[in-house]
Amino acid sequence: MLALIRKDLQIEFRTKETLASLLLLGLLTLVVLSFAFDPASELRAEAAPGALWVAVLFAGVLGLNRSFLSERDNDCLQGLLLCPIDRGTIYLAKTIGNFVFMLAAQMVIVPIFVFFFNLPISSALGGVLLSLALGLLGLAAIGTLFAAIAVRTRAREVMLPLLIVPLVVPLFIAGVQVTAHVLAGKPLDTVLHWLNLMGGFDAVFLVVGWLAFEYAVEE
Amino acid sequence: MMRRWADTLLPPSSLLLMAAAIYMVFVYVPTDKVQGVVQRIFYFHVPLAFMTFVAFGTVAVASALFLWRGTRGWDRLAHSAAEVGMLFCSLVLITGPIWAKPIWGTWWTWDARLTTTLILWLIYAAYLMLRSAAGTSDQGARYAAILGVVGAIDIPIINRSVYWWRTIHPAVLITREGGSGLADPRMQATLGVCFLAFLVLFVWLVWVRNENARLRDVVEELRQQALATATRRQIQTGTA
Q1: Cystine design at A71: which of A76, A125, A170, B44 (Cβ 3.0–4.6 Å)?
Q2: What are the structural domain ranges in chain B?
Q3: Residue A38 to residues A52, A176, B69, B194: CA-CA distances in angstroms?
C-alpha cells in the first residue's frame, strides 16, 4: 500500500501536472467569485466561506478526474489489478494519494483566499484547516470510488461531478458553516457537531468505498 | 401465474382507485377552512412523496442484493424503481411549490425536507445518467448499483446536515403533518384512498417497466443465440 501511494506521489512529483492544474483552477475560481461580489460591500465577508469551498470543490473534482485517467491511458489499472493485493488496498492507496494532492493544493489556495478576501486569519486558521482536512478526506473517499467508475463511462469528464457533487452536499454545508463560524471569531466547540458530522461522513464512506471498490473495477 | 395475475389485476384496480381518488379530492372532501382550495393538492403531494421514498428504498435494497447475488432480476428491479421514483419525485417537486406559493408566499424555501428531496432528485438523476452512459453491460449495472447503495446511505446524512443548516422550521410544516388540518374524517378517508391509489399505480408502473426490461433481456439473449447459430451454419457451409 505504501508502495502504491509512493508511486502516485512520485509521478506527481516528477510531472507536477495535477497539482498545477488543481492550484490554477482553485485560484481562478476564487478570482471569478471575487468579481461576483462587490469589493466594497459588507456581504463580501459573508460570502468568503462559500467562495473558498466552491474553489475546493471545483479543484477537487478536477483532481479526482485526473487520478484515474493516467491509470487508464497506459492500461496501468489493469496492471494494478493483476497485483496480488486486495482491491480495498488499492482504493485506500488511491484515496490517500488524492487526499494528499488536494491538501497540498489547499496549502497554497488558503493563503491566496485570505489575501483576496482580506480576512483576519490568525485565530481562525486552525479551524479552517481542520474543516478543510475533514472535507477533503470525505471528498477523496467518495471521489476515488466514483472516479474509478466515471473513467469507464461515456462522457466521463461530466459524469464525475454529476455523480459526486450531490453526494458530498453534507461536507459542503458543514465546511461552509465551520469556516464561517471560526472566521467570525467563535470558538471551535460551537461547531463541534459539524466537525463530528464531517468525521462521521468520512468514516462511513471510507468503509463503503473500501468495500465497494472491488465491484467498481471488476471486469 | 403471478405474471398473469399482475397483468389482469393491476391496470383496472389502478384505474378505479385513481378515479375514486380524483373524485374524492375534487368533489367529496370539504375545503380546508384556513388554506382554502389549494390545500386539496396535499392529497396528491403527500402520497407521491411517500412513494418517492419507497421507490428509492427499493432501488437501494435491490442494488445491494444485485451486488451480493449478481442476479439480473435485481438489477432490472432497481432500474425500474429508479425511473418511476424519478417521475414521482419530479411530481413532488412540482406540486409542492404550487401549494407553497399561496400558503407560504414563496415557491421555495430551503427547508430541510425540501432540500433533501431536491438532493435526492439530483442523486437519482445522476443514477439514470450513469445508467445511460455506462451501457447495458453487467459493468454498467454494477456501477449503478454502487451509486444506488451509496446514495441511500448518504440520504440520512444529507438530511441531518440540511436540518442543522436551516433550524428555523416554518410552523406550517408541523401543522400540516399534525391533526389540525385533517380533523374531518372525510379528509382522512380521502388521504387514505389517495395513498392506496398511488401505491397501486407505483406497483403497476414498476411492474410494467420491469417486464419491459425482462423482455428486452430475453430478446437480446435470443438474438445472441440466433447469431451464434447463423455463424456456425456459415462456417459449416464454408468448409463443405
Answers
A1: A76
A2: 13-210
A3: 16, 20, 56, 51
Contact residues, chain B, for A159 at CB < 8 Å: 129-130, 133
Which residue of chain B has the CA closest to A200?
B157
List helix spans (H) across A83-191: 87-117, 125-150, 156-167, 169-183
Residue A154: its chain B contacts at CB < 8 A? Answer: 133-135
Q: Is B87 exposed, middle or buried (0-12, 13-18, 19+ CB in 10 A)?
A: middle
A170 closest CB neighbour out of B126, B150, B161:
B161
Express each pLDDT in B40-77 by its tens digit.
Answer: 888 888 889 889 999 999 999 999 999 888 888 898 99
What is the complex's ipTM, to 2 decimals?
0.83
From CA A52, how far away is CA A116, in angstroms rounded?
Answer: 11
Of B123, B133, B153, the CB nearest to A166: B123
Q: Are B54 and B202 contacting, i.e. CB atoms less than 8 angstroms apart?
A: yes
CB contact under 8 A, A145 and B129: no
Q: What does pTM read for this prediction?
A: 0.84
- CATH architecture of structural domain B13-210: Up-down Bundle (1.20)
Note whether A215 contacts B150, CB cutoff 8 Å: no
Residue B156, amino acid? P
Query: Which pLDDT tens digit goes with each residue over B101-115?
Result: 887 778 887 777 888
Domain containing A165 equals 2-36+43-217
Cβ contact B160–A145 (<8 Å): no
DSSP state, A153? S
Q: Using the beta-carbon criterion (under 8 Å), do A208 and B153 form an inter-chain contact?
A: yes
